Amino acid sequence: MDDDLKINIEGDTVVPEELGRGGLKLLQHKDCYKLDTASVLLAWFAASFSRAGKSCEMLELGSGTGGVSLLASARCGNAHIDGVELVELAYKVFCENIRLNKLEDRICAYNCDLRELPPEIRNKAYDVVFMNPPFYDGTKGSVTDTGIKSEHESKARFSEQGGLEDFIRAQSLRTRTSGGFAVMCICPDRVPEVFGLYEKYKLTPVRLLTVHANASKPAFLALIAGKKGSPSAEFKVLPPLFINEEGSSALTKRVIHIYEEEHDDCFI
Prior knowledge:
Rossmann fold, two-stranded antiparallel sheet, globular
């Protein structure tokens, strides 16, 4: 952490951390949803649907403090990214992260409800729309059960501010009809629900990748991509991604490549 760059946000002092890609730094507030494995993998997966060497318009729905958008910008040097966040505190941190990294010309933050997007976003069609929607629908578990420590984080993890269908509807509406991609991460047991909503909102599933702690563990995360305007697009289940070597805390070679090396994946 860089102690020379302390920033005051809502009365709390926040110190930037190294993001580990492109020399970027990240501010994370204690009351906001933190960058985690799902965030890093979502940025990688979303970036893999950007065509190398071509400009790319990207939109993140529910961007939180902006960590995923920052990582995606580092992976896709040709991308312009709009990020939508409802929770005001997270939005303020997102704005500070853009300013801190001097990315004002490449990332724009919007403090709004994804069900009521501003004209600047409603009037655009995006090549890639990515999101980490609420994992919980509000009927299962509780804030205590999930380890969530604040009201701000609860809003990010539960669906009071817009459920999975709201997210997918907004995603479909903003994805470019001529072959744009809708990308998301979700808990695996909601994959059938996602596919049902994709059918309802004219998105064709094209990729599914499950993520596991190791080869003997069930999946804890699913990465999904759908394509707009391509009802006959081919669907592929990608080889599973294992985070750790079996019986060890060591990262697998594939994960080290994703975390540390230059972005060279392309799932298009």
